[in-house]
Write a structure and sequence with these properties.
Elements: E1 9-12, H1 18-29, E2 33-38, H2 41-52, E3 58-62, H3 68-77, E4 83-86, H4 101-129, E5 132-137, H5 150-170, E6 175-182, H6 188-201, H7 205-215, H8 224-234, E7 246-249
Parallel strand pairs: 1-2, 1-4, 2-3, 4-5, 5-6, 6-7
């Protein structure tokens, strides 16, 4: 299936590994040229070298997208993207009793304000060109909060509320804004959370991994490849009638009907 986005340009944030890399790779397979960002220059360049073999142009911007400097550098390299994939590492787990105001501000900056500012920077250009696709990588915790991820629960839910309003104002211009909500995927984030909970429970990370995969209806964790393909579809020409949605990808873990 041709997704109709060959020759478009995408800005993909935090794309050197994990879910961001999955999205960048899937878009590249559809012929989309990329500007990818990440904090670690070495990993970023390695990913760019890998993706260039697909046959698309890949520009790298090393920097922290959650800072003003990082955003400015990314937008200088890609001022008019057709596709924006917002992504940033989630805040650390813990007990809310231990989080001071600075921890909350940092979480909001990274997982709510940064994607809003990036959308603000590019959405009017998308409207003028009559094509735009924005995908925000958030979390399954938006649907089913995770107790130890309170910082993420709060910040990402705030972004979700903002997107619900924005997405309805841009759709008539063929500019869609949607959120992808990952559950357990094979990423560094999942592994670090397993280690955190291992220290709390006295079980090994391997034991907790087995418990979690057994409890998931799919019997496994997700792959970055299938996550990336879902992102690519939301960025497709065919997805122009899908906006303001929260696509939960968790292997069926969420037990609700809606």
């Amino acid at each position: 299936m041709d997704l109709g986005i060959r020759g478009k340009t995408a800005l993909v944030c935090a794309a050197s590994k994990g879910l961001g890399k999955g999205c960048a790779t899937s878009l590249a397979r559809e012929g989309v040229n990329l500007v990818i960002t990440a904090r670690g220059a070495e990993a970023l360049e390695a990913t760019a070298t890998e993706i260039r073999k697909i046959g698309v142009k890949v520009t790298t911007v090393a920097g922290d997208i959650t800072t003003a400097e990082g955003r400015a550098a990314a937008l200088k390299a890609c001022p008019s993207p057709d596709i924006l994939v917002n992504n940033a590492g989630g805040p650390p787990p813990g007990d809310f009793r231990e989080w001071e105001r600075d921890a909350w501000v940092k979480a909001l900056d990274a997982n709510m304000i940064t994607p809003i500012l990036l959308m603000r920077a590019v959405v009017d250009g998308m409207i003028a060109r009559k094509f735009g696709r924005v995908v925000n990588i958030t979390s399954a915790a938006v649907k089913a909060p995770i107790a130890e991820l309170g910082l993420s629960n709060g910040a990402r839910t705030g972004l979700t509320g903002f997107v619900a309003g924005l997405s309805r104002t841009t759709a008539r211009h063929n500019v869609t804004v949607n959120n992808l909500l990952p559950g357990p995927f094979e990423t560094d984030r999942l592994r670090s959370n397993l280690e955190f909970n291992a220290k709390k429970t006295g079980k090994s990370a391997a034991e907790l991994r087995q418990i979690r995969t057994n409890a998931n209806p799919s019997g496994r964790f997700g792959t970055i490849e299938e996550f990336g393909d879902a992102c690519a579809f939301l960025c497709s020409a065919q997805a122009g009638f899908i906006t303001g949605q929260n696509l939960l990808m968790d292997g069926g873990q969420y037990p609700g009907t809606f």
